Give the backbone structure.
Amino acid sequence: MSDETTTGKTMTADEAVARLRSGMTLGIGGWGSRRKPMALVRALLRSDVTDLTIVSYGGPDVGMLAAAGRIRKLVAAFVTLDSIPLEPHYRAARERGAFELMEIDEAMFMWGLHAAANRLPFLPVRAGIGSDVMRINPGLRTVTSPYDDGETFVAVPALRLDAALVHVNRADRLGNGQFLGPDPYFDDLFCEAADTAYVSCERVVDTAELTKEAAPQSLLVKRHVVTGVVEAPNGAHFTSCAPDYGRDEAWQKAYATTPWPEFAAQYLKEGA
Amino acid sequence: MTTVTRAEYCVIACAEAWRDGGEILASPMGLIPSVGARLARLTFAPDLLLTDGEAMLVRPDGTVEGWLPYRQHLALVTGGRRHVMMGASQIDRFGNQNISCIGDWGQPKRQLLGVRGAPVNTLNNPTSYWVPRHSPRVFVEKVDLVCGVGYDRAAGARFHRIPRVVSDLGVFDFATPDHSMRLTSLHPGVSVEQVAQATGFALSVPEEVPYTREPTAAELELIREVLDPAGARCREVAV
């Protein structure tokens, strides 16, 4: 009962971002242009935090931070807006060689987060061998099975994060986060792989409400890995946040076709 | 029955990729492979699993029969019970595929999607390719970045297999002594010379090249009336 009366971990997006520092490694949840923590990204863009290593299944989060010159290094398997396959601001930044890139396979990325969440230095993955992922990441090492098969795998290094930013449908004040859409993506892993995690949500509800709305297996993020809870209605806009809302395609198109300084002037002001 | 269009031969050629696949997930990328996979499921490969393109496994009528979010999809890939048909911005004669970027990776001339899941796909489950516009810019001597692994780089890869490449001109495989690409069928109306001119490397061409098979009347009706009544396939392949 006392849970309902505690202040818990609630804070504003600006308060969450105020705890971040330049040079940090930040994991950003969601996938492509789906359930991205855009309210937190927008607060990050309003701050002067820069020189970041971003770890993301990339979408407009990556495009915006790249356009704003905040990325020193990116760890990703792709960057896409889904309905617009190629992310224009990311493309432009890459084509001018704006930042360092660790380009790895989607599964390697997931196992890197698993390794970090399990406090392991690496996990073996049957992906990457034979591809140019090994050439463009000369730091990647392989590991040979000690058993009879003797197969060689990529030893995907742990993708340990200083902080994770994710957005979910519901959360309580203590940091228990719930997804209501069809896919959890990897938001729990991002939080578990990070030293600190900030979870924004469409609506903060009492703990008892969480299991009234949906089954307990929708309780994706556990509070022991959450530092801050931000109530941010429409906080994934213009990416999708099913079932609360779909992607705002008109907004996304405007983002993709407007020069960044012009778009940012409006986008960052409106979100203030 | 009206004349079979090129796009419809492409649908048939893609569908054939999943023949005898058994109870595996068909993962088509692109519209024509999607129509092909569903056609296979409705006709000669009824055990195939299909997704709604998001997180649900669905029957052809849309009935949900399972849940497959990205994390489980990745486990299904490494479990091997899947045949994916990916796109290719570039593909070479040994089946190395690129969807990441054009030019030098360090500062590309054209940034594309990124490697995505091509490395994990090609080392774990059968991976075929779909190229809607066959040209020397796609079928190149050497890809700029190897995302999907080809036969010349797959030594020791136990589960590596590239069953076929389908383009708007024909069907190709790697059933040659050195696993270099071979023309296996021409879509009706296409000549061997036309394919050779549109290919940036020397293809293996058998003495007799058959044509891609005709669709049955039932298949044509499914394509035209059930799977793609709006004719979206014609936007991916003209003619």
User: Anything to note?
Assistant: Chain B touches chain A through 43 residues (CB under 8 Å).
